[in-house]
Amino acid sequence: MNEQATKTDGTQADKQAMQLLQQAIDACNDNPTAQVAREMMPLADKACQMAVGAYARARCMENRRLMQEIIDNEPPAEVAAEARQVEQALNDFVRQPDEIRFARQLVEQTRPLLDTIAQRIGREHPYYLRLSTRVVDDAINNMSAEINLRMQDIDNQQGRLRAKLTVTQAMALFRAMDDMDMIPQFKSGRYSENRITLSTAYNKIMHNTDSGGRGSWHWAMQLLGWIVIIGIILIVKWACSR
Q1: Using alpha carbons only, what angle is made at residue 105 by residues 179 and 117, rounded to the nearest 5 degrees?
Q2: Contacts of 129 (CB under 8 A, 6+ apart)
Q3: How far apart, in whole angstroms, are the C-alpha atoms of residue 155 and residue 3?
Q4: Pairwise CA distance, residues 136 & 234, whole Å
Q5: 19-37 confidence digits (pLDDT tens)
Q6: What is the Cα–Cα distance from 44 to 27, expressed in whole angstroms?
Q7: Distance of alpha carbon 230 from the chain centroid
Q8: Cα(95)–Cα(61) distance, rounded to whole angstroms?
Q9: For residue 72, is pLDDT > 90?
């Protein structure tokens, strides 16, 4: 009797918690701003406290985390204008083809804006580091996609010349990003692994004077293939640890 009553009470509490949580979710969906997320946070906290069942608690905690993420991603007021320009550049970038030249344009376009943000709020500020890392991460994704494309066409001299140009452009892009600020875990992980792999393949290709020597080319381009594989593994690990 008491066990059944407890179960019923828990079910009712979960329903009430879900109703409160849904109010908060609806408000954030209608206006996904940091101000609304802050206003809805007490409602989400109350829902988390009321929830009894494992599913209800997990759903409350996950949505609370998403609201906190909206708050954390709000740019400080003193850099809001520059942050909006960087965000716009990132949004425009994802609609471009997967070519390194567009990644280079992204870096060149956002670098002055990021420098201004860093000067105003400091290079150790979490918001600045997240935004700068996003720029670098998107550039690496773009570079990896074009390298993967060139790997499929090295059985003729023209294809090898295109691959050589792509590798050269990718190496130049990495050099341009080397002194950009990034989240330490990202820089020592995904960024460093991809840069080392690309540098090794770049040196191998640049020292290969035999344009018809497919053995060296295949070795180098297979090595470059690890950029794509390592990149996927490391970005998943980095995203899961955030």
Answers
A1: 50
A2: 123, 181, 182, 183
A3: 72
A4: 14
A5: 999 999 999 999 888 899 9
A6: 11
A7: 15
A8: 33
A9: no
pLDDT in tens, 183-211: 999 999 999 988 988 888 788 777 664 44
3-state secondary structure of 212: coil
* In the chain, alpha helices (H): 2-30, 34-50, 54-72, 80-93, 100-121, 126-151, 157-177, 184-186, 192-206, 214-241
Residue 150's identity, in one-letter code, is R
Letter string b/e over residues 178-216, b meaning 16 or more CB atoms within 10 A of that residue's CB: eebbbbeebbebbbebbbebbeebbebbeebeeeeeeee
Residue with tokens 């943000």: 117
Enter the tokens of residue 118: 């860093």
Instruction: Indicate the angle between helix axes 126-151 and 157-177, nearest 10 degrees.
Output: 170
